[in-house]
Design goal:
single chain, mainly beta, Jelly Rolls, eight-stranded antiparallel β-sheet, 2% helix, 43% strand
Length: 442
């Protein structure tokens, strides 16, 4: 820790970071007037896959893999926004799934199985996986990286950099003209004989919403438990027929139930389509809209039961991109094939309607469901999952926080009066879910 009141040049007292935060160096935050080294251990970390011998004019042999890990510092319980700078030379790699910002950076996803190099960054808390050489496999040239990304990282989290030369070979450091890249501001002598990525810290500051924050109105009191043959129903309304949507829910799977298990969604048509829905099927969590798409819908492998997690689906009617978020972080993004399609089907919680029959019953506990008529931003998704009940606001179509704890209905606090009744009617019936105490972890 650098004392904010330590002597400066010529013996004069240094300016406290409480007065001037700029006195803190890269990787430091100002805490109680002193500069605390939070992210310094991340600065200058390297993946290196050096060429060891020539395999062909464009390819060299290299080591199988390399990895390096370190921990973020900081105060326990604090989540930090760490701006990282990545520079290096890589070959492009095709990945499946995940969410791309159009650059080499990919959030989530997985390698597609070919032999091109994998460059992966993982964070233990909140759990995150990123790839840094997203592109197209089979391009026989190298590429220079130079970009920044800001990541949320909890104090004490382990940050691991991993590079894998899948077949112990890699493309040489050569551009489209056969000349090597020389990357400035890195610790390795340039041009480097092989591939590498260096990670540096540009800035760090405490996130306004930490991983374990509880913000907004109220606190989780009760939830609804579904035994695999129960549901709640919200009658159709024009407000649910939006061009863009966001669905959000806290969920706790007791176990997979049947062929698939629906958190909540709105059926469309006489077949098996939905206007929008979030569901579990075939060991994966899925979400998407019912427009025809050659790409399918966003999904992420899922084998976790008996734990609370947050899921969100966003669909932007302008860009026609579907995005699935888990615990506030994007994990899968895919284009849709058109606009959301609607009819008069009710919105079902804990079940779905396929071919005229009710099925897809959820087995577990649900809480804090929301529906928006806009595609929420990643920052809004992150903040919302830590908020028990939002204020009435533009774009909020429905909000069911299950605060009643008893009775046959649960109110909509969005201001649109889209209350849900337990079961298929407002009478007591076997299809009613059970009121339970909520243990949502925020």
């Amino acid at each position: 820790m650098t004392e904010g009141a330590a002597a400066g040049a010529g013996g004069a007292p240094a300016i406290s970071c409480a007065v001037d935060p700029s006195v803190c160096k890269e990787g430091e935050v100002c805490s109680d007037g002193t500069c605390e080294n939070v992210a310094g251990a991340l600065a200058g970390l390297l993946w290196k896959l050096p060429c060891s011998s020539e395999a062909s004019s464009n390819v060299c042999n290299t080591i199988a893999n390399t990895s390096v890990s370190t921990q973020l510092g900081g105060a326990p319980g604090i989540t930090y926004d760490v701006k990282l700078h990545f520079r290096g030379v890589v070959e492009q790699k095709t990945y499946s799934g995940g969410c791309s910002d159009g650059s080499y950076w990919l959030t989530g996803g997985a390698p597609n199985g070919d032999t091109y190099n994998v460059y992966r960054l993982t964070i233990s808390s909140p759990p995150q996986t990123f790839y840094l050489n997203r592109g197209t496999s089979s391009i026989e040239r190298a590429w220079a990286l130079d970009f920044e990304q800001t990541l949320r990282i909890d104090a004490g989290a382990t940050v691991t950099l991993f590079a894998d030369a899948v077949d112990n070979q890699e493309i040489k450091n050569k551009d489209e003209l056969g000349q090597p890249f020389a990357v400035p501001n890195v610790s390795l002598a340039q041009p480097y004989d092989g591939q590498f990525i260096q990670m540096d810290v540009e800035s760090v500051e405490a996130d306004a919403v930490g991983s374990h924050s509880s913000v907004g109105q109220g606190s989780a009191g009760s939830a609804l438990s579904f035994s695999g043959a129960q549901l709640a129903t919200v009658a159709d309304a024009a407000a649910m027929h939006a061009a863009s949507i966001t669905q959000e829910a806290w969920f706790n799977f007791a176990a997979p139930s049947g062929v698939y298990s629906s958190l909540f969604g709105k059926t469309y048509g006489a077949g098996s389509q939905d206007s929008y829905t979030i569901w579990f099927q075939d060991a994966a969590l899925h979400a998407g809209i019912g427009a025809a798409s050659t790409s399918g819908v966003p999904a992420v492998p899922w084998t976790t039961y008996g734990e609370w997690h947050h899921a969100a689906l966003t669909y932007d009617g302008a860009t026609q991109i579907q995005a699935l978020y888990v615990d506030g972080l994007p994990v899968s993004c895919l284009p849709a094939g058109g606009a959301v399609l609607y009819d008069s089907h009710a919105l079902l919680i804990g079940a779905d309607t396929d071919n005229g029959s009710t099925n897809g019953f959820f087995n577990g506990t649900l809480d804090e469901l929301r529906l928006f008529s806009v595609a929420r931003t990643p920052a809004q998704i992150w903040a919302d999952m830590h908020t028990h009940r939002l204020d009435v606001q533009a774009g909020l179509v429905g909000q069911w926080t299950f605060d009643e704890g008893s009775g046959q209905t649960t109110a909509d606090s969005s201001g649109n009066d889209l209350s849900a009744w337990l079961g298929t009617t407002d009478a007591v019936e076997a299809s009613d879910p059970t009121w339970v105490a909520s243990t949502v972890p925020h």
